[in-house]
Amino acid sequence: MGTMGLREIDGLWAAARSVEVRPVGPDEQVRSAMVGDAGEIAELAGLLEVDGTAGGFVCMCFGDVTFTVRGELGKVLGVLTLHLGSGLDWSTWGGQLPLIRPEELSRWLVGRRIVAG
To answer: Source organism's superkingdom (predicted)?
Structure first.
C-alpha cells in the first residue's frame, strides 16, 4: 500500500458531508447511525486511521460494519468496511489495513450501539 491510497482517503474525508455507519447482518441489539456534524466526521476519520506501512490482507467475509461516506447531495464517495479484530478495507487499497486506534473505535461503536459491547 503506497502513500497514494492514503492521500486518496484524505480527499475522501475532506469531501465528506455525512457518514452512514451500519452493522453488517441482522442483530436486534444494534442499530445504524448517521454522522453529519463536521466535528464528528473528523473524529470518525481519526478513529478510522490505518497503518499504511502494513501489507494489505484480503479475506472473503463481508465484514462487520460499513461506513458509507457521502458528499454533496448524498453522492456516495466511498464505502469502508471494518473487520473487527483485523482491520479496515477500502476497495482503493486492495485489502484490509490495520487500524491505529482499534480500541477507541470499538468504544465509539459500542457507545452508539452500532455493535454490541
So the answer is: Bacteria
